[in-house]
Amino acid sequence: MSSHTTGEPATTDESVRVVSLANGLTILAQPMPWLRTAAFALAVRGGVEYEPERCGGLAGLLCEMSQRGAGRYSSRDIVAMQDNLGLDHSSGASSALASFGAAMPADSLPDALSLYAEIIRRPHLPGDQLDDARMGALQEVRAIRDEPTQQLILRLKKMQYGPRAGRPTCGDEAGLTAITMSDLHRFYSERYRPDGAILAVAGHFDLDATIDHVESLFGDWQGESSELADDSGGQPGYAHIQQDSSQTHIGLGFPAVPLSDPDYYLLRAGVGILSDGMSSRLFDRVREQRGLCYNVSLSVHSMRHRGAVLGYAGTTPERAQETLDVTLREIEAIVDGIESAELDRLKVRVQSGLIMEQESSWSRVSSLISDWFHRGRVVSMAELEQRIESLTTDQIVAYWRAHPPSDYRVVTLGQHPLIVPPSRNESKA
Questions:
Q1: Whole-prediction pTM value?
Q2: CATH code of domain 237-428
Q3: pLDDT tens, 50-84?
Q4: CATH 3.40.250.10 matches 4-218
Q5: CA distance 200 to 259
C-alpha cells in the first residue's frame, strides 16, 4: 500500500474518512449503511478553464473519448460493464474540474471503481472515433444555440467571470472543429493527474475494504498538475442579444462571496428568502402579485475564489422593462428587513433538503467533492443544520447591508434592449 495520512483536523464530520495518498489524491469516504446503494465520483483538475484558448470544448470532449476503450476493455466492453453493474453514470467538465461518477447497487461498487480506474488512468483515446465524439459535442453546441435561455446564461457567465472562467463547458464550434488527437493526448497528460484529484465514495460499503481497494487502484498513479493564476473576472455592464421573439429573457448577476467564505450562509439565506419556493419574495411579488413574468429565479453560484448571484426572468416584450426594474428593487429591498416567518420557511426547506440528501448516496458524493474543492474540508450535515438554525434575521440583513448588490451584469434577449436602472447603492452615492 502507498503511504497516506488521515486528516483528522481537516473535517468536522467524524463519519467521513479522509485519506490523503502520497501522490496527491484525496479520498473521502462516508458509509451510509441504511442505504442499499453506493456512489462515487472522481474529479481531476481538468476543467474548461485549463483549455487552450483555441480549443473550446476540449475538456468535455476528453471526458467522452476517455470512455471509448480503456485498459483491457474496448468501448463496447465498457458500455456492457456499465449496464451489467447497474450504473447510473455521468461525466463532464465544469470550470475547474473534470469528473466521472456513478450511483449503483451497493454490491457493484468494487467492480465499478476498478472499471473507472482504467478509464481515468489508461484510456485508449482512439483516433478513429474522434469524429464521432466531435459530432456529438457539436450537436450539443448547436442545440444550445437554438435555446434562448441557454444563450442568455452563457453570455451572462462570461460577463460575470471573464473569458476564461466564464467559458461554456460545452465549448464552441470553432474550438471543437480545431481539436486534434495531439490536443487530446496533451491535455490528458497535463491534467489527468492525482495531484489535487478528489475521489468521494458514499453509501452502503465496507469502509476499510473500500479504502484498501482504492489505494490498490490509484496508489501508484503519478504526476503533478500546475495551477493557473486567478484572473480578475468579468466586468459590470449590459448586453443585448437581438432576436425577433414573442418573449424577452432577462439574465442578471452581481459579485458575491464564494462557498469558502464564512459569510456564505448569510448570503445563501438571503437568496433563499428571495427565491426558494413559491412563497419566496420574487415569485410572490414579481410573478404572482404583479403578473409581470412567467418565471423568475435567483441562485448562488461559486467558483473556488469568488462567487456570484445569478438571476433569470422570462416575460413578454411589453412587460420586460418593468420586470427588470421590479426584480432589482426587490433584491435590493432585502436590506430593509426580513420577517421571522420568511426565515422560518427557509429553515424548513433546508431541513427537507438535508433529509433528502441522507437518502441519496449520489447527493452526498456531490457534496463531499464540492466541500473539499471549495473549502478544503468536509462540512457535516449536523454542522450545516446548526449553521442554518443559528441564523437570525438581523445577521442576514447586516450582511446584505455590508455587501449590497451592485456592479450588475445584465443580459437580455428579445426584440428590444432594456435600460438597467442604477442600484440603490449607486443612487445614494
A1: 0.91
A2: 3.30.830.10
A3: 999 999 999 999 999 999 999 999 999 999 999 99
A4: no
A5: 19
